[in-house]
Design a protein that fits this description.
Radius of gyration: 19 Å
Largest sheet: none
Distance between the termini: 44 Å
Number of domains: 1
Number of helices: 13
Helix content: over 70%
Shape: globular
Number of strands: 0
Strand content: under 5%
Amino acid sequence: MAEQLFYFFIYPGLLFAGIVGGLLSWFDRKITAKVQFRKGPPLLQPFYDFLKLLLVKETILPERGSKLTFLIAPLFSLIGATLSAIFILLPLLNIDIGFEGDVIVIFYLLTIPSLFYVIGALASGNPLASVGASREIKMIISYELTFLLIFAAVIMKAGMTINLQEIIQMQAGGNAFIGSISGVLLFIAGLFCVQAKLGMVPFDIAEAETELSEGSFIEYSGTAYSIIKFTKYIMLFILPALLVGFFMAGFNWEGTGILWSVLKLLAVVLLLTLIRNTNPRLKVKQVMRFFLVGMNIMVIIAIILIYFGL
């Protein structure tokens, strides 16, 4: 029992994933600043922001809506992100306690944060939050099918195994999936799905600061919003880490492999940041067309290539 609690609260769960995610958030903001010819924030700025919300800012409850649901939603989103972190990071950190079918569990756990963002927004009673929730639902419908097809394609490519540890080990001999044509196509589609799951431009239509003033999160403040921010830190870490595990042979924590592992993770986050800073926000119908048509076709082509061993 103590071991499971340690995994959930300390390593590789809540605390570890949140700290690494905060550092990656700084990296994302620093690269953004460089692209825009600014200096950027100090290293610990993401943690200052989190602590300020947690300890200083007042939590204001909306007058309308369900206050209990409004407060519980961020907590459940954090639990979903933390559980996802455990199942994704344990194999990547060479802690072999996984089980057959953990890939399927990971897929479902990764949907929890977005779903509870929607529930929290609807519980706030704010019209702008409701618009943001509506957009988030349409986003989920769009990219989750593509994300599911990517999971299915990776399982096919790994010889029909549904264990993340085995998928990583299959690539350990130097045959990383990204080294094949189908792997490149799947990685590109996966990168855009991660971009959408993180709510980053061009897929930030649910928040859309200039239109909806944070949309789904417009009513959140203080401790409740600090939990949302911490959840986003965790997701910024575990989603790129999942791509590294699926397509880049995971992490290697021996010798120079440590540096290479860090660089692979940073490279994925760098790509996400560059996409965010070089594209305008898309409309809802553009996002749906992009995933339901463009990305799905790309993944289906990749599945056909996998069938022919490419």
